[in-house]
Amino acid sequence: MYLIELHNGDKAIVKRINGGTNLTRRLLQMGVIPGVEIKVIRNNKYGPMILEIFGNKVMIGRGMASAIEVG
Fold first, then answer.
1. CB 3.0-4.6 Å disulfide test: which of 40, 44, 65, 69 passes with 15?
2. Ferrous iron transporter FeoA-like domain spans which residues (predicted)?
């Protein structure tokens, strides 16, 4: 399952980032690290997603979210 598929309020653990070096580096800098719990604050199916990671709110694009495998 991928992060893009989750709904508002859902929580999941990051399993893997399926992307290139630049995408992976950028996500790691934002705290999207395998093993970390992510909560979806907003996923309206259009526009960017808002996530909560380590108590901080982070906005990511839908392309990035579709590269994050969660469980």
1. 69
2. 1-71
